[in-house]
Amino acid sequence: MRTVVPLDPPHDPTVLDAASLGAAIRSARTRSRIPLVEAADAIGVSRQTMINIEKGGAGVGLPTVLKAARELGVTLFAVPATEREVVRRAILATRDEA
What we know:
The protein is an all-alpha fold. The protein has one domain (18-97): 434 Repressor (Amino-terminal Domain) (Orthogonal Bundle). The protein is 56% helix and 0% strand. It is built from five helices and no strands. It is globular, with a radius of gyration of 14 Å.
């Protein structure tokens, strides 16, 4: 079996597109040392769908992507644009303290 290499989360916690959400999901999976196939099985999707989720690929429904995020411990926040930068900085400051 292949070794799962942990990947750091994206530096910017802001999810701007499917690719940035996919990168956060992949980071969460690899940091938990969960192989891709195991994650796919746990979420109830194919290996290829899991790859598409992590790459931000087209063709994966939002409910499936959100389920993958939830199952792998990625939390999303709906923040008004006027508060986005304050929240982003707070997340980065907390991450820097750890």
